[in-house]
Amino acid sequence: MKRIAVLIVLVTSTLVSMAQNKPGTWSVIPHVGVSISSLLGGSGIYEVGDNMIVEVKPHALLGFVGGTDVMYQASDVVGLSAGLSFVQAGCKFKDDKGKNSVVYNRNLRMNYVTMPILIHSYLLPGFSVKAGIEPTLLVSAKSHEVQQSYEVDKEGKKSNFHEDEFTIDMKNGMRKFGLSIPIGVSYEYENVVLGALYHVGVFNIYKKGDSSRNSVFEVSVGYKLNL
Questions:
Q1: Going along 115-157, which residue ranges are E strands?
Q2: Rounded to an integer, what distance in angstroms lies between the CA atom of residue 172 and that of residue 114?
Q3: Going by C-beta distance under 8 Å and a sequence separation of 6 or more, which residues neighbour residue 74?
Q4: Which of 55, 116, 150, 195 could form a disulfide bond with 186, CB atoms 3.0-4.6 angstroms apart?
Q5: Over the stretch 126-170, which tens digit does the pLDDT of each residue have?
Q6: Nearest by Cα to 222 from 111, 83, 16, 114
Q7: Rounded CA gap, 48 and 143, in Å?
């Protein structure tokens, strides 16, 4: 029985040493992926024209994420990382139908540069959970929609369609600097790192008015370059 216990300990320690770097070593991890974002804590403020603001319910929006992390293996079970990433956040809005009109393809897209600072805890060989803090810098924020109008005859047939596309710069009304709390998991196999990370905003994205906060889920793949 003792021999079996010793064998299990030896195999486990070997797997752990294979799954992550030795304590005291450094690595660089470039990564790319996709984001699924929306807003929390309120309805979305959506500007449709000069001095015209409406509040609508936000829905998930797909985006891009990419960046590089620098990681320090502090011990067999703990790692520390800091990185720089580009993250697309925002949300979509439902179409708005009127009597002789429809507004569609409505979204609010915000681009951020973020600096995630994370603690990694290795629970199983190659598998870790991570959490930390993430300062954010807003690079751009734009709302977009297409407005379509038409005529309807007595039989309900639509004709004389007319469309206008609007893209509005929203950055001046947004908070430039922010803070998020990232939590997630990752799995490493032969230097390939698969990760999932959820970011929840601490502050409102708007300078005033609506109390919406960012909610971003990302899935990424990276490659660990040992230094």
A1: 117-124, 127-152
A2: 19
A3: 23, 80
A4: 195
A5: 899 999 999 999 999 999 999 888 877 777 777 788 888 899 999
A6: 83
A7: 8
For the entire predicted model, the pTM comes to: 0.81
Residue 52: beta bridge partners?
49
140 close to 110: Cβ distance less than 8 angstroms? yes
**How many angstroms separate the CA atoms of 200 and 170, rounded?**
21
Contacts (Cβ under 8 Å, ≥6 apart) of 48 = 54, 103, 145, 166
Residue type, 76: D
Specify whether the CB–CB gap between 83 and 69 falls below 8 A: yes
In the block, tokens 């009127």 appear at 98
Helices (H) and strands (E) in the chain, counts: 1, 15
Q: Please state the φ and ψ torsions of residue 156, each to the nearest 5 degrees.
A: 85, 10
Q: Which amino acid is at 52?
A: M
Coil/strand/helix, residue 79: strand
d(Cα 10, Cα 1) in Å, to the nearest integer? 14
Strand-pairing partners, residue 166, are 145
**At a CB cut-off of 8 Å and minimum separation 6, what does 54 contact?**
45, 46, 48
Q: How far apart, in whole angstroms, are the C-alpha atoms of residue 149 and residue 151?
A: 7
